[in-house]
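Customer escalation, tier 2.

The customer says the design service returned an amino acid string that "doesn't look like it belongs to this structure." They asked us to rerun it and document both sides in this ticket. The original structure tokens are below, unchanged.
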């Protein structure tokens, strides 16, 4: 514990842990080969006109990109190549960088990556048509739609069309329902919440019988992470914007998982000495010393928290890399479920 021994908190290096998980996945999925690509049959097979016979090309605007061939030989452990399809609408720098990050991660571990890039004015009907196509694609074991979608496309409608067997982000209401119910197992655990629990377990922080406080109750982080903690036998309290005195509740926690999106809201004196603090928040604050004019901080005041907490995740470099690692893990799990090993 940081304060008891007058030491600083153990920093939980999410980047390092995520890298370890990437290696674990790679060792299960494939081994790199560059010389022999004979087992690689590219799904993207443009003809001389730059189009393809592949049905994905029936609209000129659909681009389907498959990762390079260097990881395509099947491993001895795994007789198939897992595939992840990511849908992105519009072409902003931000969405492109999210896609590229996932593409790179897939490429590193040997997961086939499909980027389905749709124009900003894609209709809801066309988008659902594409979702159905990839639902039926046997090379794809995980699907993800990059949010937000343009206003004219109903997000809920599109997301609900993704097959529950392929919805690797784990947000399907049936998955969340199963997560909440005793005796039921969801097909996929939501990536960021799953990453938070993985950070705790890989740092040697046990959850069972601990008092845990989750800050935030969103569908994508707060609520599912609270359910996961409960499933792991913690005593869980959720704090939200309606609480008048969140600090008094947070101060009782052995484990704090915060996903409020409020820059440096949690002061050092809100934290119980020795507690584990997993900071999911990503908040931009002005910083004239940076070229960009801003820097990213978490929900916890890092400098104060590290003097009190026992374990602490930095922002950036804590939970963020775990979200991608869990996406890869879920894709592998989806493929394993399909192939029965
Ligand atoms: P969200 O949908 O805006 O939810 C925020 C939650 O925090 C809400 O439940 C809200 O309460 C609660 N909240 C807001 N202010 C509060 C306060 N002062 N005290 C207590 N509770 C408060 O956000 P989200 O999508 O869950 O994301 C939360 C943060 O995590 C954001 O910074 C986001 O960027 C980050 N994030 C990071 C990752 C990652 O991979 N690292 C992934 C997802 C999200 P009410 O319900 O009462 O409004």
């Amino acid at each position: 514990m940081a304060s008891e021994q007058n030491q600083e908190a153990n920093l939980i290096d999410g980047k390092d842990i995520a890298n370890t998980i990437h290696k674990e996945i790679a060792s299960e999925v494939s081994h790199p080969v560059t010389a022999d690509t004979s087992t690689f049959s590219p799904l993207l097979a443009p003809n001389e006109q730059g189009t393809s016979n592949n049905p994905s090309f029936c609209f000129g605007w659909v681009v389907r990109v498959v990762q390079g061939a260097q990881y395509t030989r099947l491993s001895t452990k795994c007789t198939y190549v897992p595939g992840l399809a990511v849908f992105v609408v519009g072409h902003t720098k931000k969405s492109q960088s999210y896609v590229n990050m996932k593409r790179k991660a897939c490429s590193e571990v040997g997961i086939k990556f499909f980027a389905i890039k749709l124009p900003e004015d894609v209709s809801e009907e066309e988008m659902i048509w594409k979702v159905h196509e990839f639902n039926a694609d046997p090379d794809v074991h995980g699907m993800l739609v990059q949010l937000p979608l343009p206003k004219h496309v109903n997000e809920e409608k599109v997301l609900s069309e993704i097959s529950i067997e392929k919805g690797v982000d784990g947000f399907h209401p049936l998955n969340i329902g199963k997560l909440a119910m005793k005796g039921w197992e969801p097909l996929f655990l939501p990536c960021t919440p799953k990453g938070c629990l993985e950070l705790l377990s890989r740092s040697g922080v046990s959850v069972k019988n601990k008092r845990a406080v989750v800050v935030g109750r969103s569908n994508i982080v707060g609520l599912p992470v609270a359910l996961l903690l409960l499933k792991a036998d913690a005593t869980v309290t959720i704090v939200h914007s309606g609480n008048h005195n969140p600090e008094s509740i947070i101060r009782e926690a052995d484990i704090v998982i915060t996903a409020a999106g409020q820059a440096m809201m949690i002061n050092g004196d809100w934290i119980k000495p020795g507690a584990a603090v997993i900071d999911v928040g990503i908040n931009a604050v002005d910083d004239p010393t940076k070229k960009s004019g801003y820097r990213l901080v978490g929900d916890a005041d890092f400098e104060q928290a590290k003097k009190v907490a026992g374990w602490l995740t930095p922002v950036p470099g804590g939970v963020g890399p775990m979200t991608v690692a869990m996406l890869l893990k879920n894709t592998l799990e989806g493929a394993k479920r399909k192939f029965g090993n």
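Tier 2 assessment: The sequence is consistent with the input. The two ends are 41 Å apart (CA to CA). Residues 320-339 form the longest helix (20 residues). Sent an explanation to the customer and offered a walkthrough call.
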